[in-house]
Amino acid sequence: MLTDNEKTVTTTHVANIAVRNPEIVEVARHYGLTIRTCLPADPETKGGSEATVRIAKADLVPTDANLLEQYPTFGHLEAACRDFCDEVNNRVHRATRRKPVEVLAEERQRLHPLPKEPFAVAFGTTRRVNWDATISVEGVRYSVPHQLVDTRVWARFNGDELIVTAVGEDGPAEVARHDRSTPGNPAIKDEHYPPRENKEADRTPRANSAEEAAFLALGPGAASWLIEAGAAGARRIKPKMAEAVALAKLHTAADVDRALGSAAIAGRFAENDLIRILTYQSGLETVEPTRASEDHSLQPGTSAWSKFGIADEKEEH
């Protein structure tokens, strides 16, 4: 409910009928409120709003009684208001003998929810959005959604917050909100910018020609070989890639890809390294292993020892 207080709701009276402020009417329609116009100089109809102001001055605004010299920021004042409401709403009321917070829980079942988007009565001052999706307010850079680059927006302060409004096809809407900052400390939010590729991470091979596509088609070993060869600064990478594609026609693509993966792990990128690794791995699959036995030994025979001592025997005789 809105009540008339110091001509903020009404603009004038005609034949004792209040002519309401059109902006306040829009605010009430947005939040689903009912405006009740008070009679001028009538304590019975204006007492409620005046009592609210009196309570705020007595308990929140710094005085000798509350021992607060000042509030550093508007946010501290808002926090003090919330603490005060929590304190008084948890006291047992003298008339109802109930805590207001308990009564409020019952009243919430009959109240409609407030809209998520706030109603912008005053847009503020205009600002042009720069190429980096920021606006300048009092010497501080504040970010806005990147879709608004090179457009005009409105900025205003609400306590310790900067509110940025833009007018789109559906009318004005809040597009950004920042805590008040100081010169030299820009307020930037990541969600105002499109996602970026991680430039620090390892790159994924992506073919830009038919030759590169043929090489990468060999398999994951080829991609690993290219990454490691590039990191090691290997020479003549493209001719070696062409050689691997040619070898895949003589052998299978799986064999060449396995050899490339082994070369990447071992860091072997010199000339003919791929052929050597491929030949070695192919030989492991075709050559039968040799096992030691009594019939086959690397130990030389003892037949030459059989004649030792025969000549000596002849001389004795």
> Which outline best applies?
elongated
Given helix and strand content, the structural type is alpha+beta
* Sheet with the most strands, sense and barrel status: 4 strands, antiparallel
Rg, Cα atoms, Å? 43 Å
Number of separate structural domains: 3
For the biggest β-sheet, the strand order reads 5-8-9-10
Mean pLDDT: 79
* Separation, N- and C-terminal Cα atoms: 145 Å
Helix/strand order: EEEHEHHHEEEEEEHHHHHH
- Helical run tally: 10
The helix content is 25-40%
Give the helix/strand layout.
Elements: E1 2-3, E2 10-14, E3 17-20, H1 22-31, E4 35-36, H2 43-59, H3 74-89, H4 100-107, E5 125-128, E6 134-137, E7 140-143, E8 152-158, E9 161-168, E10 171-179, H5 210-216, H6 220-232, H7 237-250, H8 253-266, H9 273-286, H10 310-316
Parallel strand pairs: 1-4
Antiparallel strand pairs: 2-3, 5-8, 6-7, 8-9, 9-10
Helix pairs in contact: 5-7, 6-8, 7-8, 8-9
Molecular structure report:
By secondary structure, the protein is α+β, with helices and mostly antiparallel strands. The protein folds into three domains: 2-110, no CATH class; 125-192, no CATH class; 210-286, no CATH class. It has helices spanning 22-31, 43-59, 74-89, 100-107, 210-216, 220-232, 237-250, 253-266, 273-286, 310-316; strands at 2-3, 10-14, 17-20, 35-36, 125-128, 134-137, 140-143, 152-158, 161-168, 171-179. A four-stranded antiparallel β-sheet has the order 5-8-9-10, with no helix packed on it. It has a two-stranded parallel sheet with strand order 1-4. Strand 6 (134-137) and strand 7 (140-143) form a beta hairpin. Helix 5 (210-216) crosses helix 7. The longest helix has 17 residues, at 43-59. It is elongated and about 140 Å long. The N and C termini lie far apart (145 Å).
